[in-house]
Specification:
This protein is an alpha+beta fold. Strands 7, 8, 9, 10, 11, 12, 13, 14 and 15 form a nine-stranded mixed β-sheet that branches. The protein has a seven-stranded antiparallel β-sheet with strand order 2-1-6-5-3-4-16. A hairpin with a 2-residue loop joins strand 3 and strand 4. The protein starts with a strand and ends with a strand. The model has no long low-confidence stretch (mean pLDDT 95). Bound molecules: 3-[O-phosphonopyridoxyl]--amino-benzoic acid.
């Protein structure tokens, strides 16, 4: 049996799950999304993801035709319908069907709400366990992160070309992930993950004010670190500080916590995943096993 996709509250087989070519989500990337994970029938940080979805929608004046509670329930129903224990959930809300003009007022019907629940596929080139053991090699790419004054990175919009261009640059050079800088040249984040460094046992991650999404995994790691009484700072970072750090790791819903062992050809620490990173990976895993909304 294939997966069932929820579109506006109705379930469709994968091959029949289709939306209009006039949907402004397709025509203009006019819409918002979230990526959520569930672990052993526990949806991790569901409230935080739903809240962020509604914040993104509010910012682009997109009215989601259901309450947050209904959205959370719809996520749970979709997981149950697909009988998935461990899943990756993609929530997508588009402006809906309009005409060929930009004007969102032409999308007269409701927004389109899509919920896909599937198995997780991450950095398919490498086995996840191997990735965590060996760590990732990444590079800085020329494409800078969107200016917050132009398209604020806090909005998880359907227009991800900024990140996709950076990803293409990384892949062209033979790397799986890229560091994106902000317009001032400070480290912003990676294409779909936040970045942390560890220096003398303390954590540093860029603040959300420039080109950095306030990642939910990022916040979770900051929480864990503070509970462990590690120094954890939101601070601007230069590439130099990344190069001379003891450890580097990335965080994201899909990736969880991934060690980085080389940046722009510079070996980080001793070139192996660091002990703070390994501890945080373990603590994060523990949390995903005990926290969340059960279904
Ligand atoms: N930065 C960006 C630009 C992101 O898109 C994160 C950081 C991490 O945020 P969370 O809240 O997940 O800790 C993201 C979100 C995917 C995929 O399929 C993942 C994201 C975005 C798009 C696709 O792996 N991550």
């Amino acid at each position: 049996m294939g997966i069932k996709i929820n579109i506006n509250g109705k379930y469709y087989d994968k091959k029949d799950a289709k939306i209009s070519v006039f949907d402004h989500g397709l025509l203009y990337g006019d819409g918002v999304f979230e990526g959520i994970r569930s672990y052993s029938r526990l949806v991790f940080k569901l409230k935080e993801h739903v809240d962020r979805l509604y914040e993104s929608a509010k910012s682009i004046m997109l009215e989601i035709p259901m309450s947050k509670q209904q959205m959370a329930k719809a996520v749970i129903s979709t997981l149950k319908a697909n009988k998935l224990k461990d899943a990756y959930i993609r929530l997508v809300v588009t402006r809906g069907e309009g005409d060929l003009g930009l004007d969102p007022r032409k999308c007269k019907g409701n927004a389109t709400v899509i919920i896909i629940a599937d198995k997780i596929a991450l950095y398919p080139e490498q086995h996840p366990e191997q990735l965590c053991k060996k760590g990732l090699e990444i590079i800085t790419v020329p494409t800078i992160r969107n200016l917050p004054e132009a398209l604020n990175p806090q909005i998880k919009s359907l227009n991800y070309l900024n990140n996709i261009l950076a990803k293409i640059e990384a892949v062209n050079c033979g790397f799986q992930e890229a560091i994106m800088l902000d317009s001032l040249g400070y480290v912003a984040e990676c294409t779909g993950d936040n970045i942390f460094i560890v220096k003398r046992g303390e954590l540093y991650t860029p603040p959300q004010c420039m080109g950095t999404l306030r990642g939910i995994t990022r916040d979770t790691i900051l929480d864990i670190a503070r509970k462990k009484r590690l120094g954890a700072h939101e601070h601007v970072l230069t590439r130099h500080e990344v190069y001379i750090s003891d450890e580097v790791f990335l965080t994201g819903t899909a990736a969880e916590v991934i060690p980085v062992v080389k940046v722009d050809g510079r070996k980080i620490g001793d070139g192996k995943p660091g002990k703070t990173t390994l501890m945080l990976m373990k603590e994060y895993k523990k949390l995903t096993k005990k926290e969340g909304v059960r279904y």
